[in-house]
Design a protein that fits this description.
19% strand, globular, 10 strands, 5-stranded mixed beta sheet, Purple Acid Phosphatase, chain A, domain 2, alpha/beta, 233 residues, 7 helices
Length: 233
């Protein structure tokens, strides 16, 4: 019997990542799919990136997907989008995690190592196995699998459109925060529980041999973080 563990939006909470990995290890390991949004809002984005870049421990296989926040970070750091777009969506906290001053007249993007930007840019947008599709935001059910757009996979909010799944597969995603989640429907599961703020991270556990939703949800508890200051309360 083999399992896949889905870890949703971490948003700068390296403490929750550590707890999640410990929980996976305690259950014997397996495939771990990270569904994106590792950076912004919380205090330790850099630490998350460095941990994920270091690679999986023995007994685990990691599949690390890109979220819309990683995409914003890459676009800004490569000069293809205005800095304000990223900073207004929590990017300021990410810059601080790289040692950037909290208050300054101009943003210095050079604090972010180029190898981090390159690694984030290479992340995939979707992973599919026999029974499920893992993606950051969603899937457009009106289009075939091969025609899904980057914008849809990173930004989609109309989750009701694929409540019954996609092409016979269960869709696992995050992106839309539901503090009382996860939201479990016949054909999809949204695991995002606003963990960076609430301190409550939910990891979906899926039996690789059985179709459908999670056979278990592992709930991780960490500190509550103030949404305005980014500090523990």
């Amino acid at each position: 019997m083999a399992f896949t563990f889905a870890v949703p939006d971490l948003h700068g909470r390296a403490d929750l990542l550590d707890l999640a990995l410990a929980a996976v290890t305690a259950r014997g390991g397996g495939t771990v799919v990270f569904t994106g949004d590792y950076v912004d809002r919380g205090p330790t984005s850099r630490q998350i990136i460095e941990r994920l870049m270091a690679g999986a421990p023995e007994g685990q296989r990691w599949l690390i997907l890109k979220g819309n926040h990683e995409d914003m970070m890459v676009e800004v750091c490569r000069g293809r989008a205005p800095i304000e777009l990223w900073v207004q969506n929590g990017g300021g906290s990410t810059l601080v995690s790289y040692g950037h001053p909290r208050r300054c007249e101009a943003v210095d993007l050079s604090v972010v190592p180029s190898e981090h930007v390159a690694w984030l840019d290479r992340l995939g947008l979707l992973f599919a196995d026999e029974h499920r599709i893992y993606v950051h935001a969603g899937i457009d059910p009106t289009l075939p699998f091969t025609a899904q757009s980057k914008k849809t996979m990173l930004w989609m909010r109309d989750h009701g459109a694929f409540d019954d799944g996609f092409e016979g597969k269960h869709v696992v995603h995050g992106h839309t925060p539901l503090p009382d989640g996860p939201d479990r429907r016949p054909g999809r599961t949204n695991l995002d529980t606003l963990a960076w703020h609430t301190g409550r991270l939910c990891i979906g556990v899926f039996d690789d041999d059985v179709p459908g939703g999670p056979v278990e949800v592992i709930e991780i508890r960490g500190e509550l973080i103030d949404a305005l200051t980014g500090r523990a309360t």
